[in-house]
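pinging the channel bc i need a second pair of eyes. not urgent but kinda urgent?? the chain im working w is below, pasted from the shared doc
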Amino acid sequence: MGFFERYLTAWVFLCIVVGISLGHFFTDTFQAIGALEIARVNLPVAVLVWLMIIPMLLKVDLRALKGVTQHWRGVGVTLFVNWAVKPFSMALLGWLFIGWLFRDWLPADQIDSYIAGLIILAAAPCTAMVFVWSNLSDGEPHFTLSQVALNDVIMIVAFAPIVALLLGLSAITVPWETLLLSVLVYIVIPLIIANLWRSWLLNHEHGYLRLQRVLNIMHPVSLVALLATLVLLFGFQGEQILAQPLIIALLAVPILIQVFFNSGLAYLLNRAVRSPHCVAGPSALIGASNFFELAVATAIALFGFQSGAALATVVGVLIEVPVMLLVVKVVNRSRHWYESREGVVPHEQCCPAGLHTHGGH
């Protein structure tokens, strides 16, 4: 895990300060940036999100789907948690905490928007940082790759209906055309570009070397694009945050609970079905983390820069790294307990030394 990723939370805090300051002193500039949109898709944000997502998707080999049945129990558990539990548990937590318990401390006109942002954040499983979490937990790399590839494909068809269903249950009007356009712009097109680019790079005698060289170049570009997006967001959200700084802490509560709940659920279910620990670890981490780049872009497209939804997704970015590192630590320290269950294959058999593929974002 690189220096930049390890201290991502610190960089996000810096972006908060920079964004709020710039938004305060250059209000007209930020308003002009916010107005640069086509069909409710903000063009500067679309470019930045592509710069974030495409380098990540370059690492995903969709051919790995052929091996998805190798660890079918772990795949089944992860799919269940990602698509049948996480979005719905987050919606429930959002209604409970934001819509009821914390309602008196939040702007009344943004309550529904905050809940919508939380739902959008939980509706897409992480595709990028998962490779880091898997390495840190000594996860089985082929399982991680095949699971991420499968989730990417499922997102194309499941993300929009799940978001629309849960927003509808929250009585939030869903502009279907904007939601589908977000799926096209932020999932389908980047996935096509990344796979065509990956195939072109690998179609060479030294293909993997070429791919790694491009990844090394694009990695800092991806991180800078993420931080630039956050500066824009906080530039628009600055006045609201300064007026009520408690908002960020309150929004973090349901996000933290859902991370621990879903990671714990995935971990325990994998132990129940006797998945190896090197599968259960990344399964729990994939089950808990979010594709926050997609969530931020979708929230902006649906509700705008200054919405509570956009702010809620950004809080997910803020707490992602420290919380997931804590989950990694729990997974690693509980390995002996996990493998004490009869029928669980020991780590040395599941994932022999030298099998791991290090690096990645």
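so The mean pLDDT is 84. and Strands lie at 37-38, 41-42. — does that match what u expected or am i reading it wrong
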